[in-house]
Amino acid sequence: MSDIKACLFDLDGVIVDTAVYHYRAWKRLANELGFDFTEEENEKLKGVSRVRSLELILEWAGITKTEEERAELAARKNSWYVDMISSMQPEEVLPGAREFLEEVRAAGMKTALGSASKNSGLILERTGLLSLFDAIVDGNSVTASKPDPQVFLKGAEALNTAPHQCVVFEDAVAGIEAAKAGGMKVVGVGSPEILHDADLVVKGLYELSTDLLYHL
């Protein structure tokens, strides 16, 4: 039986799905710049920082902008995105996520968010999940992106829990790598073919129970 004392969750694709809002905001920006932006291209931006996402979009469009112009475009995209997520509702939480968080806490485990999003606090507040987290480590408090383990190590530190006593829940390969690099157990949420390095892979948190965590 493993000694799991804390659960660290990625946000997007695990607890909520904000990809549609990112897509709409990037598409609006692309359209204003005179080109289109597809859902396939949007898939390539998952887990990628806002600055790098903009760089990729401009590369695909063959457009060159100064650093100052890029900063303005990224800020414009983010303001549209924040407007959209400000209207998020509790029913937008992914199936089973709220119930699993409640079960984890009822079992006496601590919970933290480990996300690249700089808007995670707002999203948790709008979806009614904020009270289910003991700590939030997000894009506002980390300097290195996944697969660097910094976000999860900071989460473990915030919970005063050793890395080997933590289990991470992730939907991206970079996140799986980050958890492993941090010496943590990891549950992949998504496709077993893609997330094969995880200790366990599920389609969603609705497939999980705390009993399963003790056998990782």
Automatic annotation (TrEMBL):
Cofactor list: Mg(2+)
Co-factor: note: Binds 2 magnesium ions per subunit.
Keywords, ordered alphabetically: Magnesium, Metal-binding
CDD domains: HAD_BPGM
GO MF entries: beta-phosphoglucomutase activity; magnesium ion binding; sugar-phosphatase activity
Family listed: Belongs to the HAD-like hydrolase superfamily. CbbY/CbbZ/Gph/YieH family.
Descriptive protein name: Beta-phosphoglucomutase
